[in-house]
Amino acid sequence: MRRVLSVLWESFSPLRLRNLRIYLSGQVVSMIGTWMQATAQSWVVWELAHTTKALGIVTMLGALPLLVLGPFAGAWADRLDRRRVLVVTQTVAMGLAFTLAVLVQTHAVQLWHVYILATLLGCVNTLDFPSQQAFIGDLSGMGEVRKAVVINNMVGHSSRMLGPALAGWIIAQAGVAPAFWLNGVSFIAVIGTLLAVRANQVRKVSTTHPLNEFREGIRFVMTQPRIQDLLIYTAMATLLGISNMQNMPAFATDVLHKGPEVLGLLMGASGAGALTSSILLIPLVQRVRLTGVVLTAGLVWPGFWFTVFSFSTYVPLSAVCLFFASLGIPIIMTTANGLIQSMAPPNMRARLISTWIMISFGMQPVAALLVGYGAHYLGAPGMVRINGLTMITGSVLMLLLRQGLRGWEANIHGPHRGPVPGVAAQGPRPASEPSR
């Protein structure tokens, strides 16, 4: 027990870095607002259209720019000052939140308004996502990047628990508009912390066309079978697991016969599971030797609980199922994010993160339409059931068929260990202390 507590305590070691602490404090506030808006936006779409097809379309439009513009975003995130990029993207996102707040407040909002604003926010996120993920490494250094990614995910999952629950309560008590206003105000916190911190970024100086740099990153991935595995597992987690959450308004009203407060409860239960995973499970999982087995278990577990959830018509059981389902997916996302960053050459890190985002979240447009239209014709429970069973089957087949995956030991700590199997030697890394 003492050893377990020691491992959990050591997983927070990046917080000794002042700049990382400051940045994450702003992220806590901003991400709560972001999840409030995500929940409120889905409720607005559901009330305007009352069809899962519309929920799928708005999710698709928000993710489509990640797929279309991703090849350029990673290259630019390697070239530009990531701190300044994030200040700009967060400012623009704040403006979009206030625009949606005004439309809802004045009762002028229409479905096409939400579609356009979701697309514009997706364009902002295309550059923001790889810049933000790589910026975590700039603040922590490569020696602490995997732990820093875990802590950053804890912030996101805490917000994912609190934001939807708060949004559900606010919508029930005061209407939808305040959720958008509060999200807009929350961006002030993260912009302030970005202006306050300093980071060590290895910037790429190049006149090469971004598409050529993107192809360079793809060629590197093609030589790394284990990075390919990480991308495939991430894609399955996103397409078959996270995509289920877009249909929660349908579950809240048509399956459970409740209102926005239950939507907030379901989303909050999912966030609570993800937070529990980040705090208690992931630090321990990173000590497990067989990474391929860990990744497979990280998908089989939520696949089982999503399947059980699809049969539930009882609110407490549905919330419990989402809590348990959300224990596994953060293991996939955090492991993939951290290992890809540690495997990447320093001047290619944002490009590989961008590739990871494209293959996972960038494929979400296809998943959004499939899940939205599938739920329309098969029912939301039937679509979730299919996704859950596919997660189980696909992950087990990966472990059985991908050569070398079952014996892959990436989660090895200690200076006496050799390089990660299947990963080329990378040369020297930046120092672990980035602050100046």
Explain how this protein is built:
This protein has 17 helices and no strands. It has 436 residues and is mostly helical. Helix 2 runs parallel beside helix 6. It has helices spanning 2-10, 18-49, 52-79, 82-105, 111-140, 145-174, 177-196, 210-222, 225-241, 248-255, 260-285, 291-311, 315-325, 329-343, 349-360, 364-378, 380-401. It is globular and about 50 Å long. The chain is 76% helix and 0% strand.
Question: How would you concisely characterize the structure shown here?
Answer:
With 436 residues, the protein is mainly α. The chain has helices spanning 2-10, 18-49, 52-79, 82-105, 111-140, 145-174, 177-196, 210-222, 225-241, 248-255, 260-285, 291-311, 315-325, 329-343, 349-360, 364-378, 380-401.
Question: How many helices?
Answer: 17
| Main sheet overview | none
**CA-to-CA gap between the ends?**
38 Å
SSE ordering: HHHHHHHHHHHHHHHHH
Computed structural class: mainly alpha
- Provide the low-confidence segments as ranges: 412-436
Overall pLDDT metric: 82
Indicate the overall shape: globular
Total DSSP E strands:
0
For this entry, give a set of tags.
436 residues, 17 helices, disordered C terminus
